[in-house]
Amino acid sequence: ELELDRLETERRATAERLGDTPSWMRLGDVLLAKGDAEGADRAYASALAAYRDISPLTVADLQFRRGLAWGESGEDPARARALYQAAVKRLPGFVRAHVHLAELEMDAGEREAAIARVRKVSTAQDPEPGGKLAVWLEGEEAATWKAKTLQAYDRLLAAHPLAYADHAAEFFLAIDDRTRAAELARINVQNRPTRRA
Description:
- The chain is mainly α.
- It has helices at residues 2-18, 21-34, 37-50, 56-73, 77-90, 95-107, 111-120, 128-136, 139-159, 161-174, 178-191.
- The chain is globular and about 55 Å long.
């Protein structure tokens, strides 16, 4: 927490001095890691307001990050959903935004919509959509997605353990491999001691 407090102070000073998109984004990331949904959303909104380029990638990413602030905290799922929808409207192939939106749809009892959404992005290199299908489907199809997702995470974790420990831990917990989930969660929290980790 002390490290995050120090980073927040430094990044806030930089963002207020420069007022540019990258500075506001970096502040938002620290506030998100601290669990400050409102502060992170404000910083990301400031980053969006300062954006002067034409690429849809940055705009979609900022909408996604704003969605994370409200969705991961659980403070405002409706707002998170609207922001994720804005992100996928801007960038239709945005896998992570589709997955987070599908999770909210599933939580709202919209099972078929959630499954259809992750199916649309299940051919991506990101194993997360396949992991959702492994858990949300049944029978042979679920088993096939589980095997594919296990292979994908094993390959990615061998090459980039710190980059994938977080989502891989969620997947292993969802398939009831608690030992592997706990091992990955420990790696994740050592790498980035945030509330989510």
